[in-house]
Amino acid sequence: MSLAELTISDARRKLQRRAISSVELVRACFEKIEKSNQLNAYCWTDKEFALKQACNADRRLAAGDASGMCGIPIGVKDLFCMRGVPTQAASRILKGFRPEYDSTVTRNLQDHGAVVIGKLNMDEFAMGSSTEHSAYGASVNPWKARGCTKPRTPGGSSGGSAAAVCSDLCLGATGTDTGGSIRQPASFTGIVGIKPTYGRCSRWGIVAFASSLDQAGPMTKSVRDSAIMLGAMAGHDAKDSTSANRPVEDFEASLTGDIRGKKVAVPREYRLPGMPNDIENMWDNGVAMLRDAGAKVVEVSLPHTKYALPAYYVIAPAEASSNLARYDGVRYGYRASLDSDSGITELYKRTRAEGFGAEVKRRIMIGTYVLSQGFYEAYYRRAQRVRSLIKRDFEVVFEQGVDFLLTPASPSAAFPLGAISDSDPIKMYLNDVFTVTVNLAGLPGVSVPVQLDAEGLPLGLQLIGRPWDEASLLNCAYVLERQAGFSVKPQVWWLER
């Protein structure tokens, strides 16, 4: 067994006992990375940089000055700024950009001793559900369907993070979730991914997509690992006005495995017509698992759920249109080549036309339209009102004594790359049908792998919790993980000999 196959919790125990070193862990990860080009999970690595961090971590471990993440090799989604490290957000328009600062999340992780071994592929500016919209090319899911050789998507936009964790190219990874971009790829690759409450992790230094929806979170091999990693990522940050000034709990200590007496709700509006039998069966199995663990399961109504996707795809593009207006070819990043007599307006137009990909352009156009005079009230303002109603739906359910909600994480298993054409983007947007409500309401949600579908592909269930109660949510996820006993790994076909 390669050391790279360890979980964070197992590696932590071995590191603290001095049975292994961080340097050995990092070398084991790089052995796999160097043979896994077919996955296209990483867009930047620096072995020397990583080994230097690992040496520092080993010194801290030897001195007894080590937190749970000290010496743990992690990957970082290409949306997180790191001082002197290429940060492109998988977009041509940011080619060559090396920030002069660290994002708060990566700084927190490094302060805890985590070792960053590389940047991970993603959909451009986090806009997508398949990691096909990337300047680096698509990432590939380590899982293949039974009897099928077609490469599958690892999900998006954190598809590179999901593929890397699933295939043991790192022990954990950062992701961001704007409408499901942690939970959906976690489900597609059979790993755990948690989107914390909005404001739990600082957004400072993360390239913005939709500022009122974006939230960073960990993607790991187990619920315990997510608890450990989230504890290192979270915390108040004065540089982020939306960061909550709340204490960071010991999330790992909350994993008691006891949910007796807890009330778990199943929202009837999530049972969509035409839902695949595999998804229905998984959901029913999840209900049975939580009942067996002592939870009370009830059905509830979230009446405004049907408006969530339309509202999200007004609000998110509107905020993207505003955030991405800063990329003009003047201050940093890509600049189009122009004739000497071209003016500044032509520079802006050419730079943005050549620098942005098709999906980003589509969302900028939608966002600009809904914010324009004459349409602001009809679209953007109305979508914000719907958002308030969706948030209120959850508040009413929680006021009824519900502790968690249980839903599928995605309406399907991982689909083949190229199966959903750019000519019909609505089909791709429907991948977010179970996840966008959580972002609109600012709630925490976690995806836990529970079983394989008929084609041998992983499926995940989503648990939704009360705001700021990630501790209880992770405990419920821990119970679901233990009940499901999901321990299947994909066949290793991607390692080059």
Give an account of the 3D structure.
The mean pLDDT is 96. This protein has a domain at 3-261: Amidase signature (AS) domain (Amidase signature (AS) enzymes), CATH 3.90.1300. It has 15 helices and 11 strands. The protein starts with 7 loop residues before the first helix and ends in a 13-residue tail after the last helix. The chain has 497 residues and is an alpha/beta fold. α2 runs antiparallel to α3 (47-63) and α9 packs across α11. It is globular. Strands 1-3-2-4-6-5-10-11-9-7-8 form an 11-stranded mixed beta sheet, sandwiched between helices.
Summarize it.
The chain is an alpha/beta fold.
Query: Helical element count?
Result: 15
Biggest β-sheet strands, sense, barrel: 11 strands, mixed
| Highest CATH level, the class of the domain at 3-261 | Alpha Beta
- Order of the strands making up the biggest sheet: 1-3-2-4-6-5-10-11-9-7-8
Question: Regions with pLDDT < 50 over 5+ consecutive residues?
Answer: none
For the secondary structure, the number of strands is 11
CATH superfamily of the domain at 3-261: Amidase signature (AS) domain
pLDDT average, as an integer? Answer: 96
Query: What is the CATH architecture descriptor of the domain at 3-261?
Result: Alpha-Beta Complex
Instruction: Determine the CATH topology of the domain at 3-261.
Output: Amidase signature (AS) enzymes
Shape: globular
Give helix and strand order, one letter per element, not per position: HHEHEHEHEHEEHEHEHHHHEHHEEH
Helical/strand content category: alpha/beta
Helix content: 25-40%
Q: Report the radius of gyration as a whole number of Å.
A: 21 Å
Q: Per DSSP, what share of the residues sits in E-state strands of 2 or more residues?
A: 5-15%
